[in-house]
Amino acid sequence: MKKILIISSNKTGHGHKSIGESLVEQLNLSPDVSVEVVEGFLLFGRLGLKAGELYGPITRLGSDFWKLAWDISISSPKAMTQLLAPLLHDRFMQRLKDDPPGLILSIHPVFNSTILDALKQHSIHIPFMTLLADLVDIHPLWVDSRASAILCPTAESLNASIMLGAPRSILKQCSFPTRGQFVDAARLVERQPYVNDRPLECLLMSGGEGSGNLKKISKLLLSNFNCRVTVICGRNVRLQKSLQ
Questions:
Q1: Between 182 and 76, whose confidence is greater?
Q2: Roughly what angle, to the nearest 10 degrees, separates helices 77-98 and 63-75?
Q3: In this model, does residue 57 exceed pLDDT 70?
Q4: What is the mean pLDDT of the segment spanning 224-237?
């Protein structure tokens, strides 16, 4: 039985959670594979978990602070890794000792370099792979050339990884993990070619925490294109009422 350890987080939006669920769904179809998904922020301890839980409130209510933290992490990703690595080390090494996996797959950028640092420090040769959760622009924390492979869901994300220094040899372009219920539903829809007199159908959605100015985007689309706009508001009741 081959063990795959997936490092993710349910605290920073629902995107990583959805990717993890999609992967588990498919990997469980293989009888010789076992999968475990670990909450990565727990590896930093209780304070790390609390920090992860602040993601939603900060991105919604503290945009200026979030922008500052984002800019710092982009300009000094190595400094951020050096700060986080000691916090993760002991708990991660205990995890490996208790139940060593045959493969580690990270689907969250915060944990990539910190885990690779720990593996290098102890000369542990477990294959480590990263699956990008972003489609176009890539945060520098996603890319560490020591990874066995970096899985890119689009050509744009692959090119962005190259721009950040990833060697082409470890980059693999793949599709974006999607749960079977959505794939099956999409296959039932007959795609129709667009003609000039038919409105463009636009479906808008934002992150699980409601970030992104969907109202502004909707107005821009409706005022500049012949289109119909459908907005998925999720838990954002205020946005739904405003659009209605």
A1: 182
A2: 90
A3: no
A4: 86
**With 0-12 CB in 10 A as exposed, 13-18 as middle and 19+ as buried, what is 9?**
buried
The answer to whether the beta carbons of residues 25 and 180 sit under 8 Å apart is yes
Percent of the chain with pLDDT over 90: 29
CB burial string 218-227: b at 16+ within 10 A, e below: beeeeeeeee
- For residue 74, the number of C-alpha atoms closer than 13 Å in the C-beta half-sphere is 9
pTM for the complete prediction?
A: 0.80
More confident residue, 145 or 235: 145
Q: Of 143, 152, 69, 149, nearest to 112 (Cα)? A: 143
How many angstroms separate the first and last alpha carbons of the chain? 53
- Residues 152 and 172 sit within 8 Å (Cβ to Cβ): yes
The tens digit of pLDDT for each residue in 12-42 reads 767 888 898 999 999 988 889 899 898 888 8
Report phi then psi at 3, rounded to 5: -100, 125
Does an H or E element contain 230, and which? strand 227-232
Q: What is the three-class DSSP state of 228?
A: strand
3-state secondary structure of 190: coil
**Where do runs of H (alpha helix) occur along 28-104?**
46-53, 55-61, 63-75, 77-98
